[in-house]
């Protein structure tokens, strides 16, 4: 079944209050963060807090992801402490190449308890080399279920200026979407870092959806509803998808693999797109009249 990752809410791993309340906002995933939100001198304390949260906090059905540190810093200690607490996935930062994922997967396998549900990996692509190797990273191990883009680190590394419209990350976004699609996994977009700019967030999220992303990293609970609204199929999309499926059924009954809808050709790729919209609508419990 398709795993919803429209929103993946970062929660700083050194903030007990935020860790405690992180389940009440309805994010599809929470990311308990041991990396950049936590200063080096707080890493050990944050690891204990996050392990405790995984065991005792109810995240109300949100996928429970932990962002570990890179394996050349605190990452191996993170994996050893966190994996036995049963997270759904680890977000591996600054992945450069397939070997980084292979090393993480090996450490995870060693840390898993017998009978434990396998821990997935999500690769955070935020370096020029990581982007260049994105497909190899995506296919390095069967635990990898998504690629996510980290545009702040990436633009800093290539020396680009960040702009509200994001022209400087267009190539990175499309390359990442293509690598994820080629590997048959999800692409998750970079966070929108101004938590107070709702119009900017909506515009940026709509553009990410248009490019093929399935969700967006999220830094503040106030961003969740806006992002969900954008990624949810609209009434118009659901209506179109139903009519596509109906049109192709009719055409097939008449012995043809191609149909026409409002003068436009409907064939296999169009039907695939329509079926994905209907699958998402079903997963979200949206009926035609409830889409937005
Ligand atoms: C942004 C802001 C400071 C705004 O503060 P504000 O004060 O305006 O928040 P308010 O909205 O007023 O909060 C109202 C109530 O919600 C609670 N609340 C807020 N945020 C919450 C939350 N996240 N989880 C649970 N609870 C939360 C809060 O405690 C309060 O609760 P209460 O007091 O009870 O009412 C705050 O959200 C925040 O710290 N976010 C997390 C930031 C973070 O994790 N960054 C690192 C990860 S990104 C990254 O690393 C990407 C990348 O890898 C990518 C790349 O490379 O591009 C990189 O490298 O950059
Ligand atoms: Mg980063």
TrEMBL record:
Positions of transmembrane segments? none
Cofactor(s) annotated in UniProt:
Mg(2+)
* Residue ranges annotated for the HpcH/HpaI aldolase/citrate lyase domain, each copy included: 6-221
Alphabetical list of InterPro entries matching this protein: Aldolase/citrate-lyase_domain, Citrate_lyase_beta/mcl1/mcl2, Pyrv/PenolPyrv_kinase-like_dom, Pyrv_kinase-like_dom_sf
**Signal sequence segment:** none
Give the binding site residues for Mg(2+): 126, 153
Quick one: which residues bind substrate?
67, 126
Pfam families tied to this protein: HpcH_HpaI (PF03328)
One annotated GO biological process: oxaloacetate metabolic process
Per UniProt, which keywords does this protein have?
Lyase, Magnesium, Metal-binding
Q: Name one GO molecular function term.
A: lyase activity
Q: What's the protein here called?
A: Citrate lyase subunit beta / citryl-CoA lyase
